[in-house]
Design brief:
The structure holds two protein chains of two kinds.
Chain A: H1 2-8, H2 13-22, H3 25-43, H4 51-59, H5 62-76, H6 84-102, H7 106-131, H8 135-154, H9 164-171, H10 179-197, H11 199-209, H12 211-216, H13 221-246, H14 259-268, H15 280-299, H16 305-346
Chain B: E1 5-16, E2 19-30, E3 34-38, H1 45-52, E4 60-65, E5 68-69, H2 75-81, E6 83-86, H3 98-102, E7 109-110, E8 113-114, H4 116-129, H5 145-158, E9 163-167, H6 175-190, E10 194-198, H7 202-208, E11 211-216, E12 219-226, H8 232-240, E13 262-269, E14 276-280, E15 285-290, H9 296-303, E16 309-316, E17 319-321, H10 326-333, E18 335-338, H11 342-346, H12 353-358, H13 362-365, H14 374-388, H15 404-417, E19 422-426, H16 434-449, E20 454-458, H17 461-467, E21 470-475, E22 478-484, H18 489-501
Parallel strand pairs in B: 3-10, 3-11, 6-9, 9-10, 15-20, 15-21, 18-19, 19-20
Antiparallel strand pairs in B: 1-2, 1-4, 4-5, 7-8, 11-12, 13-14, 13-16, 16-17, 21-22
Classes of the chains: A mainly alpha, B alpha/beta.
């Protein structure tokens, strides 16, 4: 097959890209999403294909997509971010309190929220690089601090009755496609463009893929870690905005159940935990899959515990499958290496 | 060939904790020449290359570029100056395409956006220069080791350097690929660049190089001299040196009729070893010599059950065995392994010496409910500290506070405490000073004298000749030959080096 690529030259690029896609995780997930959706539609005797159902389905897909992407950005430089849920919850509560208690206009509150989340991401990255402490521990600490801050902001009450404008944005759904979902897709598209097309994005991936090689090529790995956490913070900020817009009110439980899905989406989507790889489409589709599981539970009124059980199993299965694939690759690589010098020596 | 001097260094010094890796190295690289940089393991070649490319900063000496003194603070600065390099380690981003890896140092971009179209053309040009047919869009992780190496060379060509340093570039290439690389090297030199070529294969050096610098123990013993003035044997002599005198030890004889303690019979492993046969008898020191990457430690690890043995037979005390873990190797067969990497694998740095020594015998000392008597533990440890002459302030001192040599002794003591029947010692004296080295040699020698069979892995040829009774030479995961050691350093070193370099000459 490789020989074919070489002889066909440039013309085969599109073909090989298509072939590569057909073998990718994203293609497999796309099939799962389509089949699952159709199956749910048939099981609900068509009601699942109707406008309102579609709208609800997509409405609650925005946040999982965004937090999955936020985690993916951290994973791509070989870091992980345990503070995804805490930072999202804190930002949502901050915006809610600003609007409801201090009468800040929605636009200003959203900007303040986005800036705060980005700044906290930046601070996390700087702390990791500056102290040389493992990112796991640093984000664990920021998570705990932010949980405390979130509780401080809202206490036990639920902040509601904030800005009409933001609410309208949260529920608006032209052609039954919610705006918050569009926001998530736009964020995903921008992120993909950033990662695949810009020099800054390529640096992030290079530093995650082989830190030593990146350093020897003049790329500062420290700077990339800070950049990744900052970008992760910004995406969490966007997730907080969509959550605040679509939820009836914000309280201290917002963000509490974000951590598992934030890892599940990129891992199912085909992102390696060791860094250096991203899968924007895969992550988005994986968020679809987990949302489908949730929708199926509602449809068949299953016990909610099934959802977590199923998602957990899918994550475990994906990781185990990836690991198997990896060992197979390594095995074929070592036989390659052992065979090549031999044939060379004989000639 | 006498072009202008591009890069010159004088008296370069680089000190790492415990070792003077470079100790007065001089090198003069002239335009239009192909310069061989030679030396045995640990002579300082890779360190020199890292200093010349801004990875390490030198602790002394001068670097001049085109007659002006320069300080290279980072790899990027070296590249900008015009020094390109292919390091010995893999330096590719696995998830990136071939084209992107080649252009990584300076990706074609427009207002912060990567221009993928513009990436392909120069990448294809660099690959074509090497005569390689590779789809530039393929991710590097899908390539074979040899292809990856070619991509690394293409990456160095892309920077269009005046000085190009190649550290073991041919290690995983086939003869044809190597030949094509040589053509490129000659072409580059003809265009006025200087190519520095590091290789362990002397035939290759004589084929492509015209100037030579030889390093030994961090010093340049031959500096930028025309290669035509020297013969193969001259160069080997310079590499190994004549100053090493074999140290006198108390006489020791090996009973050749005794049953070998360990026999490997045509063993092959999942790691790529083929047809490995060797035996170690009681009281015998068998040396396993080879260059870094020859697969010596990997072989031992496979025997201890850390990798799969795929063929052949391992016999301990005459009976075939199947060892599945180092734990089983120690408790059932009494095989102890003193690792090369003592900081990471050999000692518990944060633990007191006493615990470091007795960890292998807790099972034996343990009474009911796993209780270990502190007194017995102390007795065992104190006995070994005395026997090995480990300099400590007390048994409670942390192993991490000891000097490198004493740490190594602690990691050895641990195995002696366990009453091992066979000891595998991997690179015992890397990074220790001459006096400790000498003490250590005596220690190993006396252990063998008391009847302990020892398999010694070392890249230090002088150490091999001093200690081993037989030297087994290994390259590329295969055994190239076995030599009876007559402890005459000049003769032995020549024979060993020849066994490594002229692989076709000796297959006896």
């Amino acid at each position: 097959m490789n020989r074919l690529n070489v002889t066909l030259g440039q013309g085969s690029w599109g073909g090989s890209a298509l072939r590569r896609f057909s073998r990718s995780t994203a293609a497999m997930l796309l099939c799962v999403v389509v089949v699952g959706y159709v199956a749910l539609g048939i099981a609900s005797s068509g009601s699942f294909f109707e406008g309102p159902s579609v709208r609800v389905f997509l409405q609650y897909l925005a946040t999982p997509i965004l937090i999955g992407l936020a985690q993916m950005v951290a994973l791509c430089v070989g870091q992980l971010n345990l503070a995804v849920g805490a930072l999202g919850g804190f930002t949502a509560c901050l915006m809610g309190v600003l609007m409801a208690d201090h009468g800040v206009p929605a636009g200003v509150a959203v900007i303040v929220g986005l800036l705060t989340a980005t700044a906290i991401g930046l601070a996390t990255g700087v702390a990791i690089v500056g102290t040389q402490i493992n990112g796991f521990i640093v984000t664990l600490a920021t998570m705990t601090i932010l949980l405390g801050a979130q509780y401080r902001l809202t206490g036990t009450r639920t902040v509601d009755g904030y800005s009409r404008t933001l609410r309208d944005f949260g529920t608006a759904a032209p052609l039954n496609i919610p705006l918050v979902f569009v926001t998530a897709l736009v964020a995903a598209a921008l992120l993909a463009a950033f990662m695949y097309r810009t020099v800054a994005g390529r640096r992030l991936l290079a530093a995650g893929g082989n830190p030593l090689a990146a350093r020897l090529s003049g790329i500062s790995t420290d700077r990339q870690i800070v950049a990744a956490h900052t970008l992760s913070g910004l995406l969490i900020g966007v997730a907080a905005v969509t959550a605040t817009a679509s939820l009836p009110g914000v309280n201290r439980s917002v963000g509490g159940d974000w951590l598992l899905p934030s890892f599940a989406a990129p891992i199912i989507g085909g992102v390696a935990l060791t860094g250096g790889s991203i899968a924007v489409l895969g992550t988005v589709l994986a968020a679809f899959v987990t949302r489908l599981i949730d929708a199926a539970r509602a449809q068949f009124s299953l016990d909610p515990s099934w959802v977590n059980l199923l998602i957990g199993l899918v994550v475990l299965g994906t990781v185990a499958g990836g690991r198997l694939h990896q060992t197979r690759l390594e095995k074929s690589a070592t036989t390659d290496g052992a065979v090549l010098p031999q044939t060379g020596g004989a000639q | 060939m006498s072009g202008t001097v591009l890069l010159e260094c004088e008296d370069l010094v680089k000190v790492f904790p415990g070792v003077r890796a470079l100790d007065g190295v001089g090198l003069r690289l002239t335009a239009g020449s192909v310069h061989a940089l030679l030396g045995e393991n640990g002579a300082g070649k890779s360190t020199l290359i890292k200093v010349l490319t801004g990875v390490h900063s030198p602790d002394g000496g001068r670097l001049t570029w085109n007659g002006q003194q320069v300080h290279l603070r980072s790899p990027l600065e070296a590249t900008r100056t015009g020094i390109g390099v292919v390091h010995q380690e893999r330096n590719l981003i696995p998830g990136f395409s071939v084209a992107e890896n080649i252009t990584l140092q300076n990706p074609p971009s427009h207002r912060g956006l990567v221009d993928r179209e513009a990436m392909t053309a120069p990448a294809v040009a660099c690959l074509a220069e090497l005569g390689v047919d590779l789809d530039p869009q393929r991710p590097v992780r899908e390539l074979s080791v040899a292809q990856q190496q070619l991509v690394e060379i293409a990456k160095a060509l892309y920077t269009e350097s005046r000085v190009l340093l190649l550290d073991e570039p041919t290690a995983s290439l086939s003869p044809q690929e190597t030949e094509r690389l040589f053509e490129v090297i000659r072409r580059l030199a003809a265009r006025g660049a200087c190519v520095v070529f590091v290789s362990h294969k002397l035939e290759e050096v004589f084929e492509v190089c015209d100037t030579v610098t030889v390093l030994r123990d961090g010093k340049s013993v031959l500096e930028s001299s025309p290669l035509a003035d020297h013969t193969h044997d001259d160069i080997v002599g310079l590499m190994v040196g004549r100053a090493h005198a074999a140290t006198e030890m108390r006489p020791r004889t090996v009973d050749h009729t005794a049953t070998p303690t360990l026999v490997l019979d045509k063993v092959s492993t999942a790691g790529g070893h083929r047809d490995i046969s060797l035996e170690v008898r009681p009281g015998e020191i068998v040396g396993l010599y080879g260059l870094v990457g020859a697969g010596r430690s990997e072989l031992v690890k496979a025997v201890l059950g850390l990798d799969r043995i795929t063929g052949g037979e391992v016999r301990v005390h005459g009976s075939p065995v199947r060892i599945t873990s180092p734990r089983q190797a120690l408790h059932e067969f009494g095989i102890g392994y003193v690792t090369e990497n003592r900081k990471e694998e050999g000692v518990f740095l944060e633990q007191p010496i006493i615990r470091n020594i007795t960890v292998t015998v807790w099972k034996r000392l343990a009474k009911a409910l796993g209780f270990v008597s502190a007194r017995e533990e102390r007795d065992v440890a104190q006995d070994l500290v005395d026997r090995l002459g480990i300099r400590v302030t007390g048994l409670g001192q942390n192993a991490g506070e000891l000097s490198g040599g004493n740490q190594q002794k602690v990691s050895l003591a641990k195995w002696l405490a366990a009453d091992t029947k066979l000891l595998v010692i991997d690179e015992p004296t890397v990074g220790v000073d001459v006096r400790t080295k000498r003490a250590f040699h005596e220690l190993i020698w006396d252990l063998a004298r008391d009847g302990l069979p020892i398999l010694l892995i070392s890249s230090d040829l002088a150490e091999m000749v001093t200690l081993a009774d037989r030297i087994v030479v290994m390259t590329d995961h295969r055994i190239r030959g076995e030599l009876d050691n007559d402890r005459d350093y000049d003769r032995m070193s020549g024979r060993v080096i020849r066994l490594i370099h002229d692989r076709d000459a000796v297959r006896s």
